[in-house]
Amino acid sequence: MKVLYVASEAFPFIKVGESGDIAAALPKYINRTGEAEVRVILPNFSQIDPLFRKNFKTLGRGRLKMGAREIDFTLEHLKYLETDYYFISSDTYFHRENIYGESDDAERFAFFSKAVLESLDIIKFHPDIIHCNNIASALIPVFLQEKKEEKSKLSSIKTLFTLHSLKYQGIVNRDLLQDILDLNPMEYFLEDSMKYYDSISFLKGAIVYSDAINTVSNTYLDEILTEEKGMGLAGLFRFHRKKIVGIRNGIDTEIFDPKKDSEIEFNYGYTTLEKRRENKIQLQKELGLHENSEIPLIAVIGKLEEEKGMELLKEKMDALLSEKVEIIILGSGMEKYEDFFDYYAHLYPDKVYTQEFRNDFLTKKILSGTDIILTPSHTEPCGLIQMLALRYGAIPVARVTGGIGETLNMDNSFLFHEYSGEEMLHAVQNALHCYHNDRAGWMKKIEKGMRARNSWGTPAKKYLALYKKLLKK
Question: Suppose 10 and one of 23, 163, 395, 471 were both cysteines; which one would form an S-S bond, judging by CB atoms 3.0 to 4.6 Å apart?
């Protein structure tokens, strides 16, 4: 069985969020089963480290019609560890200051989707399944629908679309259908196709035309079927319910292993947690915080966005700092949150530290030294950070939503349910009380968390089963 995994980011080449970790780990774990060959294809963004780029091998070139223009691309290849990676190069679309957030993102990723299909002849790899992820590859099922109608050699390919988040739906001007996508509005600007009010939606196209869809947790699947969490597409999800399944994400327990991790100061396991205390002191020293292992260290790692619960943190920042704690904020996102936390870091330089996310190096150092990982999300399709926290012996304080409830419980975490600042603060205070007054209970939670089994082994087998089911259709 041959699978082409299409992603817009993959660690260690390029990573903006958790999707980059997933694209690196899932293909590796599936390949190890020996039952499928999974290869990965990405845009060759200019931000990819030249140390990788110098080892790329050029396989061929192509040209695509994008509206009135013809755009050239080059296909590069690199075998990295156990996986074959392909990179689509285009100075026009991928040599930019930003990976996402350009004014022509719709056009950029429409080009990428077209180039993926065009590249199949160059790489001489005919996949049985194309596994698409997020908006960057949401148009591949749509373009393959065209190929099926043309009875091309690609018409036998099945598609799986993994929905990582409903926030990004690719809603764009309807004129792009004909002008850029080269699709007939009479066929695709319809309610049962890509039409979304007076616009078109890339995500809707993926939902309608994919052979199968999966969410990244079972709970998130249940949530998107509701009007409250379906973000305007709940009815469409309910209509296509039979082809949607939930598969919870995992973590790469080889890359993220406190016993062997070369990027942390002191390695440790749940039987050698005294070494973890040394990591905490070293982290406090590096970040300019008070060097005192008895002061509870709270970290927030991830996107500084409203759906990640930043409004709750903003509301209760003063109340949190009235406790004897230190707070680390590692992430980037909405300017109003970045500015807010930077202000507090300036106001309390020995109690608050902020930094934009750059790479996993600081993330790992924080995970190996902090006491608490705070995850107050409004919406969390799955979340990896809470699983990484458990792996490294940091105790999550988290709101139960989406995949959080599938990975955390009261044995290894402090949980709250209502989306409110008071509930979040109460959960943090419960954690601090346990930290100060019940060390045996605290250590028991750490041990339970570090023993949790959250690797990609089981999810990879579920994806493999889904692939097999697809090919029987």
Answer: 23
Residue 373 lies in a domain: yes
* Model confidence, pTM: 0.95
Residues 235 and 295 in one domain: no
**What are the beta bridge partners of residue 352?**
327
What is the CATH number for 365? 3.40.50.2000
DSSP string, 184-218: -HHHHSSTTTTEETTEEEHHHHHHHH-SEEEESSH
173 and 295 share one domain: no
pLDDT at 352: 97
**In terms of Cα–Cα distance, which of 22, 25, 23, 31 is closest to 3?**
31
Helix (H) and strand (E) counts for the chain? 20, 18
The whole-chain average pLDDT of the chain stands at 96
H/E element, 366: helix 360-367
Cα gap 199→20, rounded to integer Å: 29
Q: Which domain holds residue 352?
A: 274-451
CA 70 to chain CA mean position, Å: 32
